[in-house]
């Protein structure tokens, strides 16, 4: 199979779509290059840097292919349009899904959240630029999936056939409410009896203490005159 036969069944984007995508990526790629130049020494060993570097290189290759597809005519243009289609699908279905979790983790980090938010904005711009390069079937499928997710996230509307729970009779509801006051009365009576018992015990103890304090010592019989004198006082 020749290269011409191998690229015959590929859905190629139009030159107009390539020009539009090239203009959008031309504003995003310099930002990624400046980001790489500024933060390479500090974050090159981080777990998210590899995903960012792969995304940046793939976008640079796609921009070069877009320029060639726009500049050529005839068979060379068809070949480069097929390459544009393959590269855009690879970025949309492989590179972005692999880099997105690492970049979202970077955005959740308090120390480098600004870097993660900037890269997430760049990914959103890249996805918007790739929409015109992807086949129409994949674009329609993505829209259908998005609508399905939004539908599933909405609360389910009430219907007559829905589950409304178990019916409880009024007698069971009344019995359950009657049992609670009885238990409350028993607990109250027990608490009052305990308080009365404690009060009576304290009263008896105080009476006995008063009696013992009021007792006086009896004078000894046969004492001398001084003891009798002071004892009468």
TrEMBL record:
Q: Name one GO cellular component term.
A: ribonuclease MRP complex
A GO molecular-function annotation: rRNA primary transcript binding
Domain of life of the organism encoding this protein: Eukaryota
> What name does the UniProt record give this protein?
RNase MRP protein 1 RNA binding domain-containing protein
Q: Where is the composition biased (Basic and acidic residues)?
A: 145-155
Q: Where is this region: Disordered?
A: 140-233
Q: Which Pfam families match?
A: RMP1
GO terms classed as biological process: maturation of 5.8S rRNA from tricistronic rRNA transcript (SSU-rRNA, 5.8S rRNA, LSU-rRNA); nuclear-transcribed mRNA catabolic process, RNase MRP-dependent
Annotated RNase MRP protein 1 RNA binding domain residues: 31-124
């Amino acid at each position: 199979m020749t290269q011409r036969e191998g690229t015959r069944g590929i859905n190629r984007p139009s030159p107009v779509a390539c020009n539009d995508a090239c203009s959008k990526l031309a504003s995003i790629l310099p930002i990624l290059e400046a980001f790489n130049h500024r933060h390479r020494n500090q974050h090159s060993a981080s777990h998210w840097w590899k995903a960012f570097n792969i995304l940046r290189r793939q976008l640079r290759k796609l921009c070069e292919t877009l320029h060639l597809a726009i500049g050529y005519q005839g068979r060379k243009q068809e070949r480069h349009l097929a390459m544009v289609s393959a590269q855009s699908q690879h970025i949309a279905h492989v590179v972005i899904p692999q880099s997105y979790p690492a970049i979202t983790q970077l955005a959740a980090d308090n120390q480098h959240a600004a870097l993660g938010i900037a890269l997430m904005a760049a990914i959103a711009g890249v996805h918007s630029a790739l929409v015109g390069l992807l086949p129409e079937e994949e674009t329609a499928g993505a829209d259908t999936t998005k609508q399905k997710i939004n539908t599933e996230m909405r609360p389910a509307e009430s219907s007559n056939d829905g589950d409304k729970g178990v019916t409880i009779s009024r007698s069971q509801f009344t019995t359950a409410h009657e049992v609670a006051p009885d238990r409350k009365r028993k607990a109250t009576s027990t608490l009052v009896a305990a308080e009365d018992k404690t009060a009576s015990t304290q009263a008896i103890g105080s009476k006995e203490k008063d009696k013992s304090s009021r007792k006086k010592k009896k004078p000894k019989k046969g004492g001398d005159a001084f003891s009798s004198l002071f004892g009468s006082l």
